[in-house]
Amino acid sequence: MSSVKPKYQPNVSGFLSLCTRNYGHILKWLPEHAEVEDCWNVVGEFGTLTVKLVENTKYTQLLELSRYLPTSYFFKSPCARVRVYHDAQLAEVLTSQQIYRLKPVYDYPNLFMHQTDEKYQVNAFLEELLKIGQLQVVDPT
Description:
Layout: H1 12-27, E1 39-44, E2 47-56, E3 60-67, E4 79-85, E5 90-96, H2 118-130, E6 136-138
Antiparallel strand pairs: 1-2, 1-6, 2-3, 3-4, 4-5
Helix pairs in contact: 1-2
């Protein structure tokens, strides 16, 4: 009997449908005519997202999303850079917390103890972050 684990195979269709759902969530509150460096808050019954438009091109936008949490020694406020692909109708996390470039698949174990499907996990976390309830967009003052 062999104890060799089968090699991880990413579920590409599951990942793409997750990115499509994230795009749908973002589209609900993304301003049509936002400019680079514009910031706004998305307020829902479960919290507030702070959004900054970092880059704006013909078919894509780069957003920086963060969600304020009370100051804690144990938790950092979630923060991610998300590329929104309008032509493909997808939204994908590019960076998150201290991960500056997400690989599609990680060997396991690895130096930073990322999961083999870390990219999927981070995008799934984004989906949970985007589900903040009834939305109201507020320009910060």
